[in-house]
Every structure is written in C-alpha cells, then in structure tokens.
Amino acid sequence: MLSTAVSAFSRRKMSTVDTAWLRMDSDSNLMMIVGVAMLDKPVGTDALKQALTARFLAFSRFRSRVVSDLAGSWWQEQQVDLDDHVVPARLASPKSRGGSNKAALQRMVGALSQQPLARDKPLWQMHLVDNCVGEDGRVRQALIVRIHHCIADGVALVGVFMSMFGSDIGVAPAQPSPHAVVAAEENPWAQILMPMTLTSVKAIDLSSTLFIKSMCLFSEMDKLGGKIAGLAQAAGQLAVDAVKLTTMGEDTPTRLKGQPNGKKHVAWSEPLPLAEVKAVGKAFGCSINDVLMASVAGALRAYLRAKGDAVGADCEVRVMVPVNLRKASRQQRLGNAFGLVPLVLPVGLEDPVARLLEVRRRMDDLKGGYTALVAMSVLGVLGAAPKPVQNDIQNYFARKATAVMSNVPGPQAPLYLAGSQLDQVMFWVPQSGDIGVGVSILSYNGGVQFGIVTDDALVTDPDNVIKRFAPEFEKLVMLALMGEW
C-alpha cells in the first residue's frame, strides 16, 4: 500500500466557477472528464503510483476531498491512499484468433463514465487495464482516467496528465512546480479569443460572488426570462452580453437530441495523420480546426442518413465548444478557466467542400468575440447562485445545443512512462443538462483522433458514428488532390 502524507492539512475555498461544475452532477450526466491512454508495454501499479506521487500529487487538489457547508464548498486536504485511486483490471482475450477486444474496453469506459466518484476521497481515479488487444492486433495496456470537472478543465488536465510522461524512454520527467501546468503547444481556438490573464479569470470569480450577495431577485422570479433579466441588472454589461446568448434559437431536432437516461456508450477512432489534415487545410485556405469540424459535420450527416432520417439542406447542429481562456504560460494553476462558444455545424450541406467553407465562414464570424468570456462569467454567477437557479439556467442553455465538442492539442513527440511509450490518448468532457452527445478531438505525436460519448437514450451505436469521420476526411483529401490537378 502506497500513500502520501501531508504535514499540515489545508482547507481552501472553492471558486464559484469550480462550484458550478461541482453542482452540475445529475443522474443523467456526471461531471467527470474521462480519458483513455494506450501504453505499448505494461506498466506496474507500483511504477504508476510512484509517478503519481512525484508529479500528480504535487497539486493539492488531487490530495483534497470536497466538503460543503452553509458558507459554500471547500478543498480539504487529507492523507491519500493510492490504493483507493489506482485500480488494476484485465480484459478477457478475444474469442477469435486475430480478433480485438477494443469493444470490451469501450464498454468498460462507458460503464465507468456513469459511475460516480467517491465523495469522501479526492475526486479522481485511474484504472490500469491489461491485455487490451487493438484492431491492429497489438496488445497494449490502457490507463482509464476519471477526474471531476471541478478540479480543472480539459486543457489543464491534459497538461497535468502529460507531465507524468517523459520525452525519453529511459529518463523520468522532471517534477513539476505545484502550480505549473504544461501549456498546449497550439490552441486551435486562440484566434477567437481576446488576450486573457489569470488575474482577469480571478476577477470573474470575485465579481460573481459580489453580484449574488447584492441581489435577492432569484428567489422571487418564476420564469427563466426573469431570472436572466435579474442577472443582467445585477451583473451589468457583462451579463447583458450573457443575455444575448439566450436569443439563440434551438438547433434542428434530430435523433441526437432528447432526454438522456445516464447510461453511456463510448467509441474512438484510430489516428489520422496530422500532416494530411494540415495539407488539406492549406489546399482550401482553411485552418486545421476548420477541417476537423467540417469532418465532424459530415460524419453526423452520414450517420443520420444511414439511420433513415431526412436531413434537409437547412439542418444545423449546434455544438458548445469549450475555449481556453488562459494566457499562454507555463505558470498556471488548476481550476476552470474557459468559456463556451456555440458553433453551428452545417450538417445539411451535402457537398464536402461547401460544408468546409461554410464552417470556415462561421468560425471567422466568431473571431474577436467575447462569447467565451461571457459564458465563463455566467458560470461564476451560477456557482454563487442557489442551486435551483443554476439548474434552470443551465438547462435552458443546454436545450439550445445538441452536443459538447472539445478540441485539445497534445505534444507532437512520443512520451514515455516507466519505459512504456504512450501510443494513443483520448478524452471526453462531460455533457450538462439534457445534452447527451460529446465529441472530442485530440492530436498527439503526429496523429489526430476522434472520440465520442453518447447516451443510451439517444445513440446506442457510437462506433457507427466514429467510423464515418475518416471517410469524410478522405473525401476532402481526394477533392484537394483533384483541385491541384
């Protein structure tokens, strides 16, 4: 048994933004970020625990449970027993020779995505799964990671997770600063943000608390419109910008929208060459992000049509995209420092090039906007508001969208842990309210992978969606080559 002891257990107040994520847990959607890392050689549990002790537990939030009282929620440090957080497991071998048990691994990830984390312990857990046979026939080890969103957002957590790995097979990575998070090499959404500093993010948390303390309107308002209006009065111009978000109409009703039941299904693709994605973007004068988003739109269109659904030319699917609001720096803390940008995917457009160019146009329209900052401010206000108010407003926004979609860049060189190379890595951010679909894109070591998590009430066959991403991208590759001729 390996444990860590802290000499003096500290207690720190949780920010209102982090509190908002803590309180978003529901029976249908748990606020956990779930990741899967595929290692080319087995790593022992002791080696993993040593890496966690040296680098993961350097951050106090991974040593702290959450406690709540009338004054709010707090981070309470405690002794950590890593036997509670590292769980060994093993998959059964494929029934047929040369077969794969990837489906069994995906089912395990789906089941863990709906299993709550123990509230009497720090809100994270890892499963080290042996005998994972991939579609290429190779046997790997999987590391399934579950971390509650109140600890940090996806960008911060990917940085912390990657800090466990080294760039040399025989050399362990240096121990990070307790407040350092490895910055992503390239933020695909940076162009649509104004420059942000950590000071600005902290100001959101402070102002959100003051806004709520100065108003009693929420308890007297019967309708959401009144609650939003009251929010605007209290929060000033920033919340007036938030009100503009409420003017969004609902996107096209499809089988991807509905009431989730909490049972999750997960699937992910094999990596696509990142160099090809860059080449396609260059051929059409688009960004890498434009190409990836257009491929997602095409895959969703192909899936709906394969199910026999009518997909009109005006069919649009709105995805809420988390956008990092951290200034590029290696000195960042954990926590949530992002907003949400609503991107409407032109799923109804049949022509792949027309679809790509329309995605580019819509992305250009978002550049320079303050939507992400406003959305984060709303989260801060909601975290300080009564929970019923948070639920009402959160569900109101959720009805405007079909999915949550994250795009996080990872290191472009191979990483190693205890002599084992990290072959692939994928993650999923949670869906709030009645949203039942989450799409993730992550690039690593020259490849880019798509992942999807779906709710059983909406989509029971996420593999049927995932397998359509690569063909949609290949259409753009082919058309780009034809254009060069």
TrEMBL record:
Reaction catalysis annotation: an acyl-CoA + a 1,2-diacyl-sn-glycerol = a triacyl-sn-glycerol + CoA
Keywords from the named record: Acyltransferase, Glycerol metabolism, Lipid biosynthesis, Lipid metabolism, Transferase
Entry keyword annotation includes Lipid biosynthesis: yes
A Pfam family reported for this protein in Swiss-Prot or TrEMBL: WS_DGAT_C
InterPro entries given in the database record: Acyl_transf_WS/DGAT, CAT-like_dom_sf, O-acyltransferase_WSD1-like, O-acyltransferase_WSD1_C, O-acyltransferase_WSD1_N
Entry-linked Gene3D superfamilies: Chloramphenicol acetyltransferase-like domain (3.30.559.10)
Assigned EC number: 2.3.1.20
Cross-referenced NCBIfam families: acyl_WS_DGAT
UniProt family annotation: Belongs to the long-chain O-acyltransferase family.
The name this protein goes by in its record: diacylglycerol O-acyltransferase
Organism: Janthinobacterium fluminis
